[in-house]
Design a protein that fits this description.
The protein is α/β, with parallel strands linked by helices. The chain has a single domain, classed as TIM Barrel (Alpha-Beta Barrel). The strands form two sheets. The protein has an eight-stranded parallel barrel with strand order 1-2-3-6-7-8-9-10, surrounded by four helices. Helix 1 packs across helix 7 and helix 4 runs parallel beside helix 5. The longest helix has 25 residues. The chain is globular, with a radius of gyration of 19 Å. The N and C termini lie far apart (50 Å).
Length: 292
């Protein structure tokens, strides 16, 4: 589609407006496969998210020792069809993961090559995930967790629009139940433990919004800064009350990253279209002392 010169100038001007207040937020990143550039985030307070298999890499430990924060990647809502490392086998119980029961057991999927897990409130899988993350709280080798695809509704290929209402409500209520249980655990074990979810708690009604008070913030992947007001409004929401807010925007370019860094409510911004390893931090770090 050809972009009109006037529209291009408007978009560029709007980006400049947001960029003018940029760099209030800290750089963050995702290192799902490799630890390239991870050491560059070892500053108070850089933020890094591990992958499924590299959580205990020395690069993350070194980053933490220099003041950076490391969040362990956890996906409660999907079980991969293939396991790629010992950590996978442990977390996914060597394949013995209870699956979502509707419309028939194991039928639904959020992403190709995966099956939806049993996210109903109080399910055996839910309790197992809570226990698994409780161990991370006690272990103290990471600063928190990044809960992928956890929020008011699933995305991907889940075909959410066709779900009956009772099924939608069970999924939403299950995600709230998960973060509620995790929040209670961390308050008892380690209140500094960070919980963010990679999703929003708004599904078009108010049912998912109670989940916001149990997390320190959310991650939003590749939002379009200048085409929608929705995400700029959403990142300003209040989240948990433990005093260590973490709201991560995963931007599509360095320019968008700098612009998002100046948006109210955002604490960290990553500049990544793919997640194998983080980019070089696009700006300097601002020390955060809310966990000290």
């Amino acid at each position: 589609m050809k972009v009109r010169p006037f529209l291009f100038l408007c978009l560029s001007g709007l980006l400049t407006v947001f960029a003018g207040t940029a760099q209030a937020a800290n750089p963050g990143g995702l290192a799902f496969k490799y630890t390239t550039n991870v050491s560059r985030y070892g500053k108070p307070t850089g933020l890094m998210i591990t992958g499924r298999c590299n959580r205990y890499s020395t690069a993350f430990a070194t980053m933490r020792s220099k003041g950076g924060e490391v969040l362990a990647y956890i996906n409660p809502s999907s079980r991969p069809d293939n396991y790629v490392c010992p950590l996978d086998n442990t977390y996914y119980k060597n394949g013995n993961v209870p699956l979502w029961p509707w419309p028939s057991y194991g039928q639904r999927s959020i992403w190709p090559g995966t099956k939806m897990t049993d996210m109903r409130p109080g399910s055996a899988w839910m309790l197992y995930v809570v226990s698994y993350i409780e161990n991370l709280m006690r272990e103290r080798k990471v600063d928190g967790v990044f809960l992928d695809t956890t929020g008011a509704r699933p995305w991907g290929i889940s075909d959410w629009k066709t779900w009956p209402q009772f099924e939608k409500d069970k999924w939403t209520d299950g995600c709230i139940d998960l973060v509620r249980r995790l929040d209670a655990k961390r308050r008892a074990i380690n209140p500094n433990f960070i919980i963010i979810n990679n999703n929003i708690w708004d599904r078009g009604d108010a049912r998912g919004l109670p989940g916001e008070k149990y997390v320190d913030g959310v991650s939003i992947e590749h939002p379009t800064l200048w085409l929608t007001q929705y995400h700029r409004n959403y990142v300003a929401h209040a989240f948990g009350n433990l005093g260590h807010r973490r709201v991560l925007i995963i931007a599509r370019s360095a320019d968008e990253a700098r612009a998002w860094a100046g948006v109210k409510g955002v604490t960290h911004v990553a500049n990544q279209m793919t997640y194998a390893y983080p980019t070089v931090p696009p700006w300097t770090f601002t020390r955060l002392t809310d966990r000290l």
